Amino acid sequence: xxxxxWMLQHARVSARxxxxxxxxxxxxxxxxxxxxxxxxxxxxxxxxxxSEQSQSERLEEILDEVAERVSSGSQLHTxxxxxxxxxxxxxxxxxxxxxxxxxKMDQVLCDLNQQIREASEARGKFIGSLIYxxxxxxxxxxxxxxxLWFVVPTFGNMFKEMNATLPGITxxxxxASDLIAKYGIYILGGLLVGGFFARRWLKTESGRxxxxxxxxxxxxxxxLVIQSAMYRFSSNLALLLKSGxxxxxxxxxxxxxxxxxxxxxxxxxxxRNRLAAGRSLAEGLSxxxxxxxxxxxxxxxxxxxxxxxxxMSEIAPYYREKTQAFxxxxxxLLEPVIIMAMGAVISVVMLAIYIPMFEMAGKVN
Length: 365
Fold this sequence. Notes:
Blueprint: H1 3-9, H2 23-38, H3 43-53, H4 57-71, H5 76-83, H6 90-102, H7 105-161, H8 168-202, H9 205-215, H10 221-242, H11 247-257, H12 262-276, H13 281-286, H14 293-305, H15 308-364
Helix pairs in contact: 2-3, 2-7, 3-4, 4-5, 5-6, 6-7, 7-8, 7-10, 7-15, 8-15, 10-11, 10-15, 11-12, 14-15
C-alpha cells in the first residue's frame, strides 16, 4: 500500500470516542437533535440518529435507553428525567417539556444550546485568564523550594565549616531551609490531605453554604461571585421564559441552577414563594440582599412592562461582559504581584547567601 493510501485509510474523519460525558457532548447532542427536528425528522428517529453520532459511549447508552422509553410511550422530558437526571439539569428538562407542549422543540433546543455555549465560553475565558498567574505562582513556589532544599544547605554547610558569624537574615533562611528539609514531605502530605478533605467538605450542603457566604463578603472575590451569579440568573431566567416555562416553575428551576450556591438558591425560592403569594418578584429578590440594585430594578421594569424575558435577555450580556472584563483586570493585576513577591523572596534568599560571603571576603582582605 502506498503512503497516500495508508494516510487516507487512517484519516481522522471522527473524533476518538470516550467514556465520560463532556459538556461538548451535550452541546453536540442538542445541536444535532434540534437540527434534525427542524428538518422534519420524526422525534424518535432524530433521537436515535443523534445518539449514534455521539462520541461519548455513556451518553449514547443513555440516549438509547431514552429512545426506548419514548418508543414505549413516555414523553421525552420524562424519559430524560428518569434516565439521565445526573446529566441534564432540571431546568433543561423543564425546557424540553415546554418544547414538547408547544411543538417548538427545535427552537427550544437551539436556544438551550446557545445558552450552554455562551456559558461554556465564559467559563473558558475565566479559566484562561487564571492560567498564566497560576503558572507564575507554581514556578515561584518551585524556585523557592529548590533554593531552600538544595542551594541554601550547600552554602550553609560551607559557612559552618568556616565558622562564619552569620547575620540574622542568613540564620532565618537557614532555619527555613532546615524546616523544609526535615519536614517538607510531611508539610506537603498535610496540604494534600487538607485539600482532599476541604474539597469533600465543599461538596456538602453546609460547605457550599459557608463558602458562598464567605466569598461574597471578600473584596474582589465577592464582586466576581456576585456578578457571575447575576449573569447566571438573568441568562437562565430569560431562556426559561422565552421557552414558555410558567413563571413559578421557572423560579423553581432557577433554584436548581443555584444548587451549588445555597444562599442564592434560598433567595430565589424565597422570591418564588413571595411571587406565589401575590407579591412582586423584584421585591422578593431585594429582600435577600444578594442581588444587585441594577438587577432588582431590571426585574421590576420587566414585571411592570410584562417584558421580563426580553429585559433579562438584554441585561445578561452586560453581566457576562462585566464578569469577563473584571477577570481580565484581576489577572493583569495578579501577574505583577506574583512576580514582585517571587522577586522579593528570591532576593531575601540571595542576600542571605551573599552577605556572609562579602563579610568573609572583607576579613580576608
